[in-house]
Fold each of these.
Amino acid sequence: MSNNSYPCPSGGEIGRAQVAQAWACGLQPEPAMNPILLKPNAEGGSQVIVKGKLWKNLSAREYYREHDSLRGVVAEAYEDLASRFDVVVMEGAGSVAELNLRGFDLANLDLVTRFHIPWLLVSDIERGGVFASILGTIGLLRAEERSLLRAFAVNKFRGDRSLFEDGQRILEERSGHPCLGVCPYAPDLRLDDEDSLSLPQESQTSSGRVSARCAILRFPRISNTTDFRLLTGARWVTSPIAEPFEFIFLPGTKNTIADLAWLRSQGLAEWLCLQHQAGATIIGICGGFQMLGTVIRDPLGMESESLEVAGLGFLPVSTTMLSRKTTRVVQVRSPEGFAYPAYEIHLGETEYRGSSRKPFAIFADGSAEGMRANRVLGTYLHGAFEDPQVLRELGIPYEDRDVSSYSAWADWFEPFGDRFEQLFL
């Protein structure tokens, strides 16, 4: 479950975390690596992506009713990958001991028991309660699940690991399972955010002050937060604040109309106008771009029950939500002439009024993408603001971060490699 997704070169979209794992293996991401992706777009509801393609919008209860058919989708994806690769690593989602949801499990021990797969239990010691977490979880396992558990690991340990030697011994004795290792917290190693849960909930500054001149609206259904991974000091805004900004971003969202209504209810529409009048540049990405136009239509009810709503009116464009979803990786160039990669994941098609416009970017075939007008920028290109060249062209301050240092992660795990091989391979 994540609204941070990425298009596969072969078509379709999967979660950004699974894409990172594919890249770490030196592979191109493909839908089988994330056969079912849930993209929350309403209270208790999600857009369901199956095999990379939009399938249905379902509530949680409706989703559970589809369990049997979706179970086959997961098995098919596993069998496909297992036929082509020597090792398949499967990542669970949430807790393995959610007893009330066990009958609907698709991402944890259901697959383990169906295919008799050895598994590793990982506990985050930084959250506290590591003894209760490990011993309580193991105590709630069924006999078959417990028989396939090969080891547990303690992750994100800070300080002198020798101080936890007694703790490791107690856990091994009481659980009856070996400890793969006590893994150190590594503050210098970074990965892209898997979803929006890591973002601040309130109007506050994140770590650092590099991009303090920037503000980002924190929509309730925000998507593709990796667009802002270089803006480490940007202010995440949920309500109007007096601080003036030079750049204000409207991010992507899984429900453009609902988040536009939220924006207005928070008083942010008027705030954006005042900030723009004071000199701020307003930048909309994907759903944020759609909001900057004059009207948004949803005649098929793809995201909302509202057939048509007025946009914010910053750009002379209108958007219509259609059933066909655009998911593709593209190469573009900026008006200044430098090339960079980006990607699109969106439902709507946007029409531009007038015979000419200054584009945000230019596709390889020479066609225009997005729009720039009077310190307002709109684009469908995710990943554009992950490129330092784009940020430099626009004068946006950033922190250059290498979040794809997979070799560094391999070095971090190397002390546990032999033990892992003994237990699992």
Amino acid sequence: MKITPERFNQLTGKYRGLKIALVGDFCLDRYLEIDPNLKETSIETGLEVYNVVNVRPQPGGAGTILNNLVALGVGKIYAIGFCGDDGEGFELKKELSKLPNVDLRYFLQTNKRRTFTYCKPLIITPGKPPRELNRLDSKNWTPTPPSVEKEIINAIEDVCSTCDAMIVLEQTDVANTGVVTANVLKKIGEVSEKHRELPIIADSRRGLSDFPPLIYKMNRYELAKLLGRDIGEKIGEIKTAAQQLCQKTGREVFITLGENGIIGSSPRGEVVHVPGIPPAGEIDIVGAGDSVTANLACAIAAAASMEEALILANCAAWIVIHKLGTTGTASVEEIKKVLNL
């Protein structure tokens, strides 16, 4: 299938009228750009010193999905999450406030949590791709307080009847330490049952086994883990497994396959595979999955077909993996160019 210019414009033209709620773990991506030519040795320790010549902050985690929604021109984006009352939280809120059409009324800054931060040292050498060193992460390791959970739950209740789609992203590795706690998931499940017409797309680093029946987006390994069995590597085998999960949840299922594209399955029995686009040069896969999530949400909310949604998401991921040294985004114009429209 090929999307015509008219159909592409029809679908993407609806994005500016969409309202999308994004519930999840917003992180600060802090890039430390290091000049390797400024060599120095610490007098005190004798260790090599990395001289940082530029600090580049940007929203990460759920913020990466938000960046992609902004790049797609979504009319209003409700950011539902939290940051700490710390320097990293100040930076994160400052970066979020710069973005157009982002509503931060439900974004909580609290001294009961620290800001989830990925500190990424990058060696910047002219003429070479950036080289990332070991990350320095700051996370929460204790359960999210009930008072913070309640504010998140109240926010979800406020927006669920007015938005066109909702995205849920759990970025934490330890259950109940972030935004998407068991109590928050319970509320999202209730919203999904009450508002059956509202597409709610869920993704989680820990896997989706604790999630209520929503539109699941995951990779092949997460699918196998959720089903509790080996599903093989052949496209036909993955299609069958996706359909089995889809019948179990009663909702659409999307499986990302890296260079092999994306599979989508619907409760109506539709199973579609859109092959991957061969890369052109060096790639960095960071952020590709989040671009898929954002594009699926927009396309579904704009009434795209399953295949159309997969084509748009697949193109977006291809664009993002070619943006090195940053967690990139894909705009409507960039996707249009990849589709040769």
